[in-house]
Amino acid sequence: QVQLVESGGGLVQPGGSLRLSCAASGRIFSIAAMAWYRQAPGKERELVAIITSGGSTNYADSVKGRFTISRDNAKNTVYLQMNSLKTEDTAVYYCWRSSIWGQGTQVTVSS
Q1: Residue 107's beta-bridge partner residues?
Q2: Among 45, 49, 70, 87, who pairs with 39 as Cys (CB 3.0-4.6 Å)?
Q3: Do 64 and 15 form a contact (C-beta atoms < 8 A)?
């Protein structure tokens, strides 16, 4: 079984930056695609960014140019660098890998 543990969330002012991390542990036998989702209060969970095993990336239109997803395969870790944060980025951010979800980390953008 694979476990995912997120970290790096918190409170930040509009225009600020945060970096989320997600470390995978357990029975990992191959490099797999990993992704970040988010869910705001009263809204459905949505895909934010995904990175394939080969390093290709894709982003939601709402975060293009502001967020960057990356990975360190040696550490089984995926990152989400979030810049120019907006109040509408406030949500619980979840890490995903091969149908496994992390516990989520809260990101709050507020002045």
Answers
A1: 10, 91
A2: 45
A3: no
Q: Are the beta carbons of 19 and 108 closer than 8 angstroms?
A: no
Range 47-64 burial, b when 16+ CB lie within 10 A, else e:
ebbbbeeeeeeebeeebe
Q: What is the rounded CA–CA span in Å between residue 19 and residue 3?
A: 20
pLDDT at 83 over 80: yes
DSSP string covering 74-100, please?
GGTEEEEEE-S--GGG-EEEEEEETTE
Question: Is the model's pLDDT at 27 over the cut of 90?
Answer: no
Q: Looking at the chain, how many residues does it have? A: 111
